[in-house]
Specification:
135 residues; Rossmann fold; 43% helix; alpha/beta; five-stranded parallel β-sheet; globular; single chain; 5 strands
Length: 135
Amino acid sequence: MASRTDPTILIVDDFRTMRTILKKRLQEIGFHNFLEAADGLEGLEQIRMNHVDLIISDWAMPKMDGLSLFQFLQSQKALQHIPFVMVTAEGEKDNEILARGAGITHFIVKPFQASTLKEHLDEILAADTPPDNLN
């Protein structure tokens, strides 16, 4: 990630209201740089045109769903490093198993609290932080 303290987060969801809710929840926990896309194809365009540090994507969307977006990113060496959080109303265990089988390690079922989102982002940011210099 370019900036641990204020990463650029791409929010991909076909419902504008959900994108707004996600931005508000992210602002509650201290994030302020957002890009938006209404589906995976628009998300790819945002990634092509902008630096993106983290993606939060809905699963079910027209044109390109969140799982297909993730799988495309994983197929591209230059993009597979971008942390990805799947947010979905699809609470079925089979969907979570499918997502985890594809390599998605951060999976959040709607509705959720800002604290749940914070836990996932803290884990992502901690994993991306180099260890402190012990000298």
